[in-house]
Design a protein that fits this description.
heterodimer, A: 247 residues, mainly alpha, 11 helices, B: 240 residues, alpha/beta, 9 strands
Chain lengths: 247, 240
């Protein structure tokens, strides 16, 4: 436990020193939320909707940090630590490289949670947002999406042959999902063909789940998304465990 | 004398290339062993097979009575390791790496004392990436001593150190040896090996071509100086 606390504190400091997660996981979601709020104010999401555009966007924007940490942050740090033989070094201590991986997951989970809370606070204070659905349901969805995205990142970082490869794969996953899954550009304003493309992305399914749970829409409509998230998580975790390269 | 390291017939090959053959070793408490040989002769492989970070094809190892693979957690409370390559994250400071390393052990030594002994006390808040080669090397030795170990493995211990820093490291290791620390080191500096090592193993293409003391190695060779003897052992193609 002492090791976990010390390492978490150290790795968090290192990550903050790097600045990129601060920008992509904390500032960017807040700015996105503010811009959407200014553009659409408290207008209804569509004619006759009983929730605002901002409320509709909350679920999506709250997933930006999950995406940044899961498919960008995690794979990069894991492949970097493998390449620098830091994971190997942990094998000649009473601890284990697994501890270091758990610490990294905790670091990115902290970013995701803090980011979600800040986006929530901004939406609530400036744009009159309330979570209309059941809170436990939204939080459950949030952690399920996090589990699923983080397991993708763990797999990418764990099996890429070097950090260059991990960087390429992370970019291929991150940028399309950031732009098209609805985290930044609202899914609802996309033309139909683009939506069809977006639907393939795992994060789009995750965001459907987050939206339904935060808006209090019937969860029956998003069962498919739940299944996609669970299957993806199980698959990626199993593959990571089987094929993870320690050096 | 109490046996600290016992290795028997370690073998390791990659495909058809044999990188280590029949490596055996018995080392007692307070003894210093030097593993020497050209780059690629199998020094690091021998160390990694002993530590269990490489899986060997056959052979058996006991360190402090433990199997390095099965009893990993118990064993590495008491074993310090400095690998050849640097292993630390970017943007980490000396103090942070020392604290993180200390947190992994139940009874670590005080890293501040070690930093002081190695002349690094004023580098605590420095980013490791800004340290000189010699300072980094000294820091890695400090890290390997943080567990308060009974055995240390030091791969290329003094590479990159200036002569004065090397002498400091020697005298510190000599003190530790007097207190019962067992040391396995690899080195390319023959003066260092002569000074520190009770015994040496010379490796060539994965094979052990000499095992014994430095005076022994010189006596068996046609030369008077250890450095010449070493070159003779490692260059001679066929030897009787």
């Amino acid at each position: 436990m002492k090791a976990f606390r010390t390492l978490l504190f150290t790795e968090m400091k290192l990550s903050l020193r790097g600045m990129d997660m601060l920008i992509f996981a904390i500032f960017m979601p807040i700015i996105t939320m503010v811009i959407l709020g200014i553009l659409y104010g408290s207008k209804p999401a569509f004619e006759g909707a009983d929730y605002t555009f901002v409320a509709q966007s909350f679920g999506a924007v709250s997933a930006i940090a999950i995406c940044a940490g899961g498919v960008m942050g995690l794979p990069l740090v894991i492949s970097d630590y493998r390449e620098k033989k830091i994971l190997k070094r942990y094998k000649v201590t009473p601890s284990s490289p697994v501890l270091l991986l758990i610490v990294q997951v905790a670091v990115y989970a902290i970013y995701a949670i803090v980011s979600m809370l800040l986006v929530w606070a901004v939406s609530a204070v400036f744009f009159d947002f309330r979570i209309a659905g059941k809170l436990p349901q939204y939080l459950g969805a949030f952690f399920l999406v996090m589990l699923s995205m983080f397991s993708i990142g763990m797999l990418v970082g764990g099996v890429s042959k070097d950090s260059k490869m991990a960087g390429i794969l992370a970019s291929v996953l991150y940028f399309p999902m950031l732009l098209l899954s609805g985290t930044t550009i609202p899914y609802e304003i996309m033309p139909a063909p683009l939506r069809a493309a977006a639907d393939i992305m795992p994060l789009t399914q995750g965001i459907k789940l987050l939206k339904a749970s935060s808006l209090g829409l019937p969860m029956e409509n998003v069962w498919l998304s739940v299944i996609v998230m669970v299957v993806l998580a199980v698959l990626c975790i199993a593959l990571s465990v089987r094929f993870f390269k320690w050096e | 004398m109490e046996t600290v390291i016992q290795a028997e017939n370690l073998r390791k090959s990659y495909g058809t290339r044999k990188v280590l053959e029949n490596f055996s070793l018995t080392l007692g408490r307070g003894e210093v062993l030097g593993l020497i040989g050209a780059n690629g002769a199998g020094k690091s492989t021998a160390i990694e097979c002993m530590l269990g970070t490489k899986t060997m094809d056959s052979g058996e190892v006991r360190i402090l009575g433990f199997d390095p693979k099965k009893d990993r957690k118990k064993l590495f409370e008491k074993v310090g390791v400095q690998f050849q390559e640097a292993n630390y994250p970017d943007k980490i400071k000396t103090r942070e790496l020392c604290e993180a390393t200390s947190s992994l052990y139940r009874e670590p030594s005080d890293y501040r004392m070690l930093l002081q002994q190695f002349g690094l006390e004023d580098k605590q808040s420095a980013l490791i990436s800004t340290l000189s080669g010699g300072e980094k090397q000294r820091l890695f030795i400090v890290l390997s001593l943080i567990p308060n170990p009974d055995v240390v493995f030091l791969d290329e211990l003094t590479t990159g150190l200036d002569p004065r820093a090397r002498k400091n490291v020697w005298s510190f290791l000599t003190d530790l040896k007097a207190k019962g620390l067992t040391i396995v080191l690899t080195s390319h500096f023959m003066d260092e090996v002569e000074n520190l090592c009770d015994r040496i193993i010379i490796l060539k293409d994965g094979q052990c071509v000499f095992e014994g003391t430095v005076p022994n190695a010189v006596a068996v060779s046609p030369f008077d100086k250890f450095e010449d003897a070493y070159l003779w052992y490692t260059e001679e193609e066929v030897k009787q």
